[in-house]
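[step 3/7] fold_predict: job queued, chain A
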Amino acid sequence: MIRKVPALNKKVFVVIVTYNGAQWIDKNITSLLNSSYPVNVIAIDNNSHDSSVALLKKFSQVHMIKSEENLGFGKANNIGIRKALEEGADYVFLLNQDAWVFEDTIARLVEVMEQNVSTGIVSPAHYLADEKNLDANFKTYLYRSTPLHTTECLFATKFVNAAAWMLSRKCIEKVGLFEPLFSHYGEDRNYCDRVLFHKFFILIGTNSKIVHDRNITRNFKKDTIQSQYKILCTLLNPNKSLIKSYALAFKEVAGLPKFFSKHYGFFNGAGLFGNLLSYYIKHVFAVNHIKSIRKSHR
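[step 4/7] structure written:
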């Protein structure tokens, strides 16, 4: 069977957010420049203190935007996405700084988009640095996804992390940009909720792959912040009513500390409960603000 090659007239812009990522810059950018499908690369540097900016400047093909502060993941990506749309992008591919693509990665993702016009996001398979084994978190997302009957390599999912997302212009124009309330965690989950609300599909294409060169680590501070943003995601989820969202968020106030107490012990779990309860109550009093944001996402 001859595989259909996507038309090269679709403009693909890659948006990369960098922050002290010098160790990956060469691999990341070189892989994109070696793509069989031509791409335009926009890099937003979040005020790195290492040699990231100097390394990016070596690549004349990269349009670099230097931020004077660390904007976080979502707000920095928003700058790049806006620029890509202004330049006429048909598709925007978000790629983490600690990731790289293969020669046919972009072409295969464009092919999925072209053949599945209701798709808002398509993500490739995420591999470890050994290029053989899947990233642990990605395996969880894939396990929870549903295979499409039309092909063996496409899966519909409710969430896949934004280490490598190809978004259609139509999706961005309808759904909008990342919600700026999220500084580093949770913005991709919130965006997926909104994509599904607007009746776009989120797909994983396993015949396309990237390498995500990371070590997944956890600590109490990080898990506390992620738990707060998980609650915020639930409160903002447009697929649930406001009352249902607050009820589900309250369950998370109790459930998340119970889960994390297995890792950090009873006293830390109790401390997390107090932290999340306070966070929840703050957003109960801010219900009008929550309603306003939910309305803006519709």
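[step 5/7] annotate
The chain has two domains: 12-212, 220-296.
The radius of gyration is 19 Å.
exit 0
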